[in-house]
């Protein structure tokens, strides 16, 4: 196998015209350069230089050999640069799984910042609800904390935002003028379901309703927040969802309004789990920094020691 250091020394001698000049350029001693040349000739079995007075002259074989050496050294340089870019997160790929509401409200800003700062980094964005936290190649996961959340060994966990649920009602509804309402006040109304996957957010809601002493009267079933809000705007019922989810719908305030629901039981905590082996990646650090800033702008952060995230408490 040809040693790249010896190959670079060989090219330096050819470019400088002498061992002494090459040694000066490389910061080596002339004897060290001569030893590198001798070792390269032994490795290749080629006579690359001949004595010419007190110096050395390249052979015809050396010049032909140098043409290929230039290509190889160029590739090696590009490979070294790629390794640095990969190590510092400037290229390669990053897989980010996120819940639907975060995809609409936060991810555009995150993607814009990452694409501006890490031009060659490919982002693979996935809807968390599709795999429910069971896809193994995720690097960063933005999800809702719950006791049934699958663990991710080797991942760092950080709470981002604890937020209330809201009741989305038509503007003419009796609750429309209220800033806040109790969950049990919704017991007698027709509800519009909005959770296709019957996931964590719906489970939190059902558990809070059970604690309040009633079961929601789901009269209509939809598969996303936008459709549910559209049915509310049509006056067929009410729907309940986390505050950020309502923000993601871009609802018409002339048709519907959101009333915050009181009670500590009806809250969700959005958290981020990131692969521990990527904790020094500049791109991952930037993603986490962006998420923290967006969460600070979007709600109340979780108090320390007050939220259980999967099997981990904060």
UniProtKB/TrEMBL annotation:
Leader sequence residues: 1-21
GO molecular function: DNA binding; DNA-binding transcription factor activity
One Pfam match: HTH_1
InterPro entries: LysR_HTH_N, LysR_subst-bd, WH-like_DNA-bd_sf, WH_DNA-bd_sf
Span of domain HTH lysR-type: 2-59
Family: Belongs to the LysR transcriptional regulatory family.
Protein name in the entry: DNA-binding transcriptional LysR family regulator
Organism name: Nesterenkonia xinjiangensis
